[in-house]
Amino acid sequence: VLAETEVLVVGGGSAGTAAAIAAARAGANTLLVERHGALGGLATGGLITLLLTLDDGNGRQVVRGLCQEVTERVTARGAAYAPPAGEWGTDDPARIERDRRWGLVWGSPPHKVRYSVAYDPEEFRFALNEMVTGAGVRLLLHAWACEPIMEGTRITAVAFQGKRGRFAIRAQVVIDATGDGDLFAAAGCAHETEKILPWLWFRMGGVSDVDAALDAGGWYFRTVSDGQVLLPWGATEKIVRKIDATDPEDLTFAELECRRLVMQEIDRLRAEVPAFRRAHVCEIARDLGITESRRLRGAYVLSRDDMNRDFDDTIAITGHWTKYGVTYAIPFRSLRTDEVENLLVAGRCISVDHRTHHATKEIPASMATGEAAGTAAALAVRRGVPLRELPIGELRDRLRAAGAIVDRPA
């Protein structure tokens, strides 16, 4: 046993870091474990450097809290772009085209200006580091979660593997923010698995004329750095088959094939687009763009039929990055399971159906569910009650007090 803690968060992506920060700020002894050497997950190592979206598509903000805080920190360092609040919801074509060039306009027209954010991944990672350490979270990197250690319906500890061997961490409440639901799957909880076509994002610098390159209509976006573009390159259009993102053999195939295709695309851009003739590769994403694998079937499965519906136990709201005027209220029941009494889930593997997942998987929604899970875990520890008996009114009040949004716009 390496350590004992009140709240253990497994996975240091956007959801996990938010969960750990929220739990620590709420007064819980908190330990965050991440398998890689840096925080942020796909928001940093995956180069998916777009917050899509913090609004409902009609000009009203629906995600705030820790996601808003990290946005403000990165913006203060001159490393983010977002349209001004006074423009949200407007349909001015010039402003929509401006934001399209930043990668902030998706879905089918007619479009409106949205509160979405483009940012630098290293600055985003730095902001997360500062928020985690500032909150007093104990952070452990380079440790891979192996399995939960169960006693009845409770997780008493989680086993990890590191360079020095196997060890365990004891905890009162565990938050699965692994993205792939590694813990709830190993604990035997009901879940669904989807196969996907993976993406691999990358950045190129030394682009001689970014505006000219964008005028050419290519599949790339402006960044906060001069002469640099972000390419959310669609390997999904060329890779030959879907993969199971929990299968090492499938992942190996995807890593090799996607990187080969990225280099092929780089060669094409240099040969065919004048602005890229002398461009160089800044970075190819460390992480494949895996947006779906396992999803919990928890105490409540949020479905497409729940669009624009309210719940008594709502703990987060999200818009939909490709649809306007669509919101989902996320109930606390979608973060927990009756099969394991002290386990919460945050991020893209929460309990939703396949269609709703397209909204709840995004970084702002993941941070919102992470913040709710961390706050709930700390409250459960302080009250000494099982998660299913948590006072939901008090949880919602605590989230509001911390700046989160827990009610859909009227």
Order of helices and strands: EHEEHEHEHEEEEHEEHEEHEEEEEEHHH
Secondary-structure-based class equals: alpha+beta
Task: Assess the beta-strand content as a share of residues.
Answer: 15-25%
State the low-pLDDT regions, or none: none
Mean pLDDT: 96
Radius of gyration: 21 Å
Q: What is the CA-CA span between the terminal residues?
A: 49 Å
Main beta sheet, described?
Answer: 8 strands, mixed
Shape: globular
* Proportion in helices: 25-40%
Q: How would you describe this structure in keywords?
A:
single chain, 410 residues, alpha+beta, 4-stranded antiparallel β-sheet, 29% helix, globular
Give a verbal description of the structure.
This protein is 29% helix and 23% strand. By secondary structure, the protein is an alpha+beta fold. Strands 1, 2, 6, 7, 8, 9, 18 and 19 form an 8-stranded mixed sheet that branches. Strand 8 (154-162) and strand 9 (165-176) form a beta hairpin. Helix 1 runs parallel beside helix 9 and helix 2 (65-76) crosses helix 4. The longest helix has 25 residues, at 248-272.
